[in-house]
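Re: the request from the purification team.
They wanted to know what the chain is likely to look like in 3D before they choose a buffer screen. I agreed to run a prediction and write the result into the notebook, where they can find it.
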Amino acid sequence: MKHAVLFLAYKNIHHLFDYISILDDDFLFYIHIDKKSAVSSDIIEALSQKKNVVFLSRKYTVNWGGLNLLKAILHLAGEAVKNREVGYIHTMSGQDLPIKSSREIKEFFERNDGKQFIEYFPLPSSRWTDGGLDRLNYFNPYDTFDRKTRMGKKLINATVRFQRFFGIKRKPFDLFPTLYGGSVWWSLSSSCVQYVLDEIRNNPAILKRLRYTLCAEEILVQTLLMHSPYRTSIVGNTLTLVLWEYRNGNSPATLDKSDFSTLQKSPKLFARRFDYPASRDLVSLIKKELLHKEHSNSYLS
């Protein structure tokens, strides 16, 4: 069984090289780099020369919260399902890293073959502001304006406030009896991902309605799968460890060397968020441990 890793990256591109170096040849990488990211042609060429990098694209300009993030995932997924050897497909950001060795990850999915690892909960939910439905009920222009800029954030906030003030709401998202939300970081079987792609292709109204929806990538896959034959095989959690606290300037926390013991003890397979310079020493420790495990396993076999 091969594994496809769908990478969504926009900065710290060198981190992808660390990720790729940790895993063996059974892991194939499909990478989308934000079109607006300042990445040199030399880096792009070096990435494309990695034997495990199967597909590399810069098709979309990706703003946080915009629909283009979901489109980038679907773009990569469409390439991954073409390989019949791929058993599982994993979504990752450029701030993720495996915390288990290649062998441990593969053995986990051999034991759990056919299960779908994706977080889900019905909407509205107390986990999200205003239950999460405001993501769909108002026009959220995150693809038009970049929330990461001061002016972009002001324009987005002003647009939503205007709609609230005048009582403007979009038509209800009534394509499904119940909507579901959850993390965008999932591990799904190739057949399950193919089902999602087929449903979107056969019903273009779904993506059309998701335009101007805030973080649609945290709603679409969960909703489709919870109304599918795959519902009974879903394990309702993610395999990525995230520490939901404010540390090193971010929430969720940017991980650092002090988290190494926590990562070692965790049953999760992956972790985030890694950012530099705070995570540099931690990444070195993880690489050293996992590559040592791989070497030891290879020697013993």
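For the purification team: The CA atoms of residues 20 and 50 lie 8 Å apart.
Please add any questions underneath this entry.
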